[in-house]
Write a structure and sequence with these properties.
By secondary structure, the chain is of the alpha/beta class. The protein contains 19 helices and 18 strands. The longest helix is centred in the last third of the chain and has 20 residues.
């Protein structure tokens, strides 16, 4: 692995005006990272990566490199581009093992992060570096959001996110409150009441979009976001149809194969696949078939009825009358994106919304309510991990600037009440036994104490 990484690093031309950096949404200084690695300064390269992108290990795996850094590489014009994804993954995973530093000194201010997806985690890490007391709230039981529950483990192993949770959250003193929905029992007002000076809203898109055709409620049908969250819970049989052609559709198709399906076919309305070439090529390699220019009309117990599509003179798609056919299957996955379904949008006071129901924000994430910031899917619609990181970095700095303009929070009126010292485990153990023997200073003979009678050692010596 190291030899292959160094071979790729040595192919880098070290351009003075690096196109790869411009192609990266967070402008990773790729030539400098590679230069440090080649000079034997792997730790410096790792520090640079994580300082710029807390989710660098994740991005090295799931980014659409062919359209970003690698797609802009000057070598790619006439040759194969430098595969920085391989270099980034090697550096970040190797350096991560040394990231054991504890929390930054506290600045006395608390901040709440709603949503443990890429934008929320990025903001939590950056504000943690500034010394804020950060608490992350999420409706799921573990951190990651769509990275964990929407990307299959064979693409992004859970271990990567678990390691992030340990090194970037637990070791830094950042708290995670799982299975907690803000907008239900807890409101934004409750968070401000409890001393959080600022709140970030970064809930994801968890409600699947539907086809609005007959048959979507049948028992052998699954929506992509639900299927990817728990594929073992579904029994879709050996012949599966996936409707949609984005990256999530590719994930569903490949997951279905790994779950026992023998025949998986992706159906697409248009004549081009929406997924990246990288993801679709893996699906084809693993045996997934593709049917293009097909419109679903009805889902039945024994299959799906599709019609052929054609473009009219204005470039619009239309089903061809009389072309309807039934394509047999044992299971169907509807993978046509997700939409907002968060309670917080409907329950929070003072948050203006845009068309489509997303929260209205400026470029730095300010909402219409002071102290509340938003980014990610809930403010910009569906996006990639790296774009969420890029937005999160800007919002984190805006939140820091806002909170620094506020006075420090007032101490609790109960800050100086007497403290009840907890009973030690040894005393609890003695009480559980019920009877112990105590010795006096003047005698080595033990005297029995019966705690069930309310006695203690002082009563009998």
């Amino acid at each position: 692995m190291a030899l292959h990484v160094m071979e790729e690093a040595n192919r880098c031309l070290g351009c003075k005006n690096p196109r790869c950096r411009e192609g990266c949404p967070i402008h990773t200084n790729i030539p400098e990272v590679i230069r440090l690695l080649k000079n034997g300064k792997l730790n410096d390269a790792g520090w640079m990566l994580f300082e710029n992108n807390p989710l660098t290990t994740v991005c090295s795996i799931v980014c659409n490199h062919e359209k970003q850094c690698e797609g802009h590489c000057i070598r790619g014009i006439k040759d194969v581009p430098v595969h920085f994804s391989v270099i980034e993954n090697y550096i970040s995973t190797t350096y991560a093992n040394q990231m054991v530093k504890g929390p930054a000194p506290s600045n006395g201010r608390k901040v709440a992060i709603i949503g443990a997806g890429p934008s929320g985690l990025t903001i939590a890490v950056i504000l943690g570096r500034y010394g804020y007391d950060v608490t992350i709230f999420d409706s799921k039981d573990r951190i990651g959001g769509v990275m964990r529950y929407g990307i299959p483990d064979f693409r992004l192993p859970d271990a990567v996110l678990d390691d992030f949770a340990y090194r970037h959250l637990e070791l830094k003193g950042i708290r995670f409150r799982p299975n907690t929905t803000i907008g239900g029992a807890i409101s934004l007002d409750d968070l401000f009441r409890d001393g959080y000076q600022s709140v970030f809203v970064g809930a994801g898109l968890w409600r699947p979009k539907t086809l609005h055709i007959k048959g979507e409620t049948l028992g052998h049908v699954a929506f992509a976001i639900n299927y990817l969250a728990s594929p073992k819970a579904f029994r879709l049989g050996e012949r599966v149809i996936v409707i949609g052609s984005g990256n999530s559709a590719m994930d569903c198709a490949r997951t279905a194969i790994r779950s026992g399906a023998h025949y998986v076919t992706v159906f697409n309305r248009r004549d081009q696949i929406a997924a990246s070439q990288y993801e679709s090529s893996y699906a084809k390699l693993e045996g997934v078939e593709f049917e293009m220019l097909k419109s679903p009309l009805e889902i039945r117990d024994d299959g799906v009825v599709f019609a052929d599509n054609e473009f009219d003179e204005d470039g619009k798609l239309h089903p061809i009358p009389g072309s309807e056919k039934l394509y047999p299957c044992t299971g169907v996955i509807v993978a046509v994106s997700q939409e907002l379904g968060s309670n917080i949008i409907n329950t929070a006071k003072g948050l203006e919304k845009e068309d489509g129901g997303i929260i209205a924000v400026d470029e730095d994430g300010h909402t219409s309510r002071p102290g509340v910031f938003a980014a990610g899917d809930i403010a910009h619609g569906a996006g990639t991990v790296v774009h969420a990181v890029a937005t999160g970095k800007r919002v984190a700095e805006a939140m820091h600037e806002y909170m620094q303009s506020l006075p420090l929070p007032e101490p609790s009126p109960y800050a100086n009440v007497p403290r009840v010292e907890p009973v030690s485990s040894s005393v609890i153990a003695e009480q559980a036994i019920g009877q112990v023997y105590c010795k006096t200073k003047s005698s080595s003979e033990g005297k029995r104490v019966d705690y069930s009678l309310g006695q203690n050692c002082r009563d009998v010596i």
